[in-house]
Amino acid sequence: MILAVIMPCFLYAQTTLKKTMDGYELYRNGKPYYVKGLGGDVHLDIAVKIGANSIRTWGVERAQQVLDEAQQKGLTVMLGFWLQHERHGFDYDNKEKVLKQLNYFKSIVDKFKNHPALLLWGIGNELNLQYTNPACWNAVEAIAQYIHQVDPNHPTSTVIAGLDSNVVQHIIKQAPSIDILSVNTYGDIGHAVSKVQAYGWNGAYMITEWGPNGHWESPTTQWNAAIEQTSTEKKAVYYQRYRDYIAANKNYCLGSYAFLWGAKQEYTETWYGLFSKDNIPTEPIDALEYVFTGSFPTATAPSIATIQINNQSANASIYLKAAEKAQASVMAQMPTGIVSYTTASPGFTYAWKILAESNDKKSGGDVEEEAQEIRGLISNDSKSTISFRAPNREGAYRLFVTITYNHKVAYANIPFYVNPLKEGDKQIRFIQFKQKDMSSFDTTHE
After folding, report:
1. Residues 332-345: tens digit of each pLDDT
2. CA gyration radius for the chain?
3. What does residue 331 show for φ and ψ, rounded to 5 degrees?
4. Strand order in the sheet with 15-19
5. Which one-letter DSSP state was computed for residue 300?
6. What contacts 10, CB < 8 A, 6 or more positions away?
7. 210, 287, 292, 386 — which has fewest CB within 10 A?
8. Residue 352 and residue 361: Cα distance in Å, rounded?
9. Angle, to 10 degrees, between the axis of helix 165-174 and the axis of helix 136-150?
10. pLDDT for residue 338
11. What interhelical angle do 63-73 and 95-112 show, nearest 10?
12. For residue 439, is pLDDT > 80?
């Protein structure tokens, strides 16, 4: 008896970039395909639920698993190649190292070029960040050339940090095999979409990272701590930037990938992640669901109207003395749309914590250590109004609050700075406590 062995068989899907009367359009298996994407490869069920059709990776370490899972969920993948960066010490004048990198990514192309979830190739991410040697674009071209030789079914792209005319010109001249220019941009997104053609790129482009204002382009306190937008402010930003700068430019903009579909420590633990540290969906996801589907979700996250310490907002640059007693409050509300709210607060759950300002701040999304939590300083941390003691040690801190409802989270943080006690000030010694009241504080003179 002969046993037939049935092997899984994937038929590749063809992605085509077509010139139109008005610009460019992406086609997938002969049908127009506008990218409603998310930057990240987790929580794919939720991605599908909110109307996304594509995800983006930065590397290929989990490529097989990500492509297979995406295919199962009906999602496509912009598969990213993490080319080495000059700012990390890579020398693009070193022919041996450049050739080794090229050969590695040739093998990746050969392995995954026929996977049905593959949408396009992303060759390098932000190679222009803090760089001086444009030879990196020659390396990008070599990979793109190889892709065009062996894979006629998927376009090539390279991803740059922001939009710079010199960088665009280098790509045009040194990497002509790039089909789609991809741009990572945050608060400067309006500039990017308005200048891409003025800087010489007349082809199709995508916005491959976008979201809240970046920490480098945000207002700061007097001690130079960037002030983070609340989740409610971010929700409005995701909606407005998609409407005004992405969907409004469909003739040349093929779509986008919102950042970050996941959670990470980058400047703070909440700045860029669309999920909380505990993997709970955050408020800005409601805006993405709206722009992807046209319908506002019925079960929404709560929203934040204000957060204050001693009746002051973050813009006031709040200073406290060591061990000083202070009060903080947050005003929560329920949204009835993107920018409309009701003051009702049905069963919100509050949680507060104090973190030391991170002292491990990197650039370009490099891995950072988590900020240290300072425990035992907050009384009644499950309320909308709390009392707390400032830490004893001088330095910069942040007070964080999360508000949970409908298994979704709204969040905010407010920076403050602790000054040391001066001679003559009342010396306060406190003991960290577990109780929900202030009785554990020892306010005797030292």
Report:
1. 999 988 888 887 67
2. 25
3. -110, 115
4. 15-19, 24-28, 31-32
5. P
6. 71, 114, 115, 116
7. 292
8. 23
9. 50
10. 86
11. 30
12. no
Which pair of structure tokens corresponds to residue 121? 């190739």
DSSP assignment of 398-442, as one string?
Answer: EEEEEEEETTEEEEEEEEEEEEPPPTTSPP-------SSSSTT--
Q: Which two tokens stand for residue 350?
A: 């509050």
State whether the Cα torsion 343-346-347-348 is positive or negative. negative
What would the two tokens of residue 114 be? 């026929």
Q: Maximum CA pair distance of the chain?
A: 97
Query: Which residues 6+ apart lie within 8 Å of 380 measured at CB?
Result: 386, 387, 436, 437
CB 221 within 8 A of CB 208: no
Each residue of 82-93: b (16+ CB within 10 Å) or e? ebbbbeeebebe
DSSP state of 343: -
For the chain, report the end-to-end CA distance as a whole number of angstroms: 91
Domains of the chain and any CATH numbers: 15-293 (3.20.20.80), 303-419 (2.60.40.10)
Quote the CA–CA distance of 141 and 139 in Å, as a whole number.
5
Q: How many residues does the chain have?
A: 446
The strand pair at 54-56 and 76-81 is best described as parallel
Q: Which two tokens stand for residue 366?
A: 């490099």
pLDDT digits (tens, 9 = 90+) for 228-285: 999 999 999 999 999 999 999 999 999 999 999 999 999 999 999 999 999 999 999 9
| Residue 21 burial (C-beta neighbours within 10 Å; 0-12, 13-18, 19+) | exposed
Helices 95-112 and 136-150 meet at what angle, rounded to 10?
A: 30
Residue with tokens 């071209």: 141
